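Re: flavin-adenine dinucleotide structure - here you go.
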Amino acid sequence: MRNSQVAKVKIIGAGLAGSEAACQCARRGVDVELFEMRPVRSTPAHQTADFAELVCSNSLKSDSENTAPWLLKEEMRRAGSLLMEIARECAVPAGHALAVDRVAFAGRVTEAITRDPRISVHREEVTAIDETRDITVIATGPLTSPALTSEIARLSQAGAVPAPNQIPKEIPKPLQAQDPHLYFYDSISPIVEADSIDMSRVYLAARYDKGSADYINCPMTEEEYSRFYDALLAAQSVEERDWEMLNYFEGCLPIEEIARRGRDTLRFGPMKPVGLKDPRTGKMPFAVVQLRQENLRADSYNLVGFQNHLKFGEQARVLRMIPGLENARFLRYGQIHRNTYINAPRLLRETLQLKGHDGVFFAGQICGVEGYVESIATGMLAGLHVAATVCGTALEPAPRASAFGSLTHYVTHADPKNFQPANITFDLLPPLEKPIRDRALRHRAQCALALGQFAQWLEKSGVTQRSLEVRRA
Ligand SMILES: Cc1cc2nc3c(=O)[nH]c(=O)nc-3n(C[C@H](O)[C@H](O)[C@H](O)COP(=O)(O)OP(=O)(O)OC[C@H]3O[C@@H](n4cnc5c(N)ncnc54)[C@H](O)[C@@H]3O)c2cc1C
């Protein structure tokens, strides 16, 4: 039965998430009004007026079986994702990765969307949302226009004040005095896999022995520090575009920027050794890098205060100079970039609906995921949930063991105090009931479990059945 109260479904943003969401709605017989502000107004990163433009790399990450990015893509393929289908058609040789010809990819997505009779496209910037009448999917991405950002702040019942220099210049004044629920920058420290840390070179300690010794400390001699410092200053940064010329928030300066302020500044900042006596020598090292446990399973650790703007290859090279990290495997590299996203654990349900406003859904990077594939996946989920809502049914959230379910579980259950967008990694998947030590076997078992539960969910919810029916029609 259709929900006759709903005036229309509006999807704002025809990027990766919005395009997929629109297609999923249309395939289920739901009429969509899709709003895209380009080319009337562009973002600092987009170059074209096409939908689903890939703004940077052309890679949709690994397509090797039993990797986490593969699992997410595989679930999307099994659920009938339009963008995954087009990605396959536009694939270019890229080893184990799925990379696409970006022009062909965006062109075909644009064509498929514009010729869909159920989707009407409006090339205009949306600045207001009627949460009382419409069903709306907000999929405006990390570079959401400032006017809509203010509107999102209103919807999320803005309250506290972000640090003044965290606010990009073009964000309108009213927002500058609001919102603990919205973020404008990502400042991400690198994360390494625990079993790649050489524990013989590090020690556990809490500063001044306050609390339990939960931190892994990587000690440096003066000579090691000196070599590390020189390498850090010489390392290549990611190219800064004008729009990214950040007025960095002092509390999260990139390490290379701190280093540029003087040879010893790091030793008074993130590499401060005071209160961290090495129990093996009884002495305080010259400098220390601290690693903090990232999850309950303790299988990954982040480098505290090591957000940076270096190229990923350079990070790997320089950070492996830290004692104990010589063979570190990086789950995530450090980054700092403009990124508008909501505090999803506070604001969203697992159906990607805004708590308190059932008609408002969020999808893509703005809902707290990171990456092209993750954005498409949440767009797909939002589209499925919207279609179910319009049809007067409810779609169960995707199973926890699946990559879909793990992503939505993360964005809705992470600690809201330190919420940061995440890529899909095995870290987000639930641990197996019977632990498996061997990494490859463990990942294979996690993928098998995920796909098994996902298949049951698809069957039970009729997701694939419905998309196939529409395709036949
Ligand atoms: C500079 C940059 C580089 C990135 N590089 C990568 C990368 O290499 N690999 C990766 O996996 N991820 C990358 N990301 C992260 C992320 O995966 C991409 O931003 C991705 O495109 C997000 O998808 P989305 O659908 O959420 O947003 P987008 O794809 O950005 O789509 C949002 C759409 O909404 C439109 N819009 C915004 N405001 C309004 C409005 N008020 N009214 C109407 N339309 C509006 C925009 O024009 C845009 O078309 C990058 C992000 C940035 C900012």
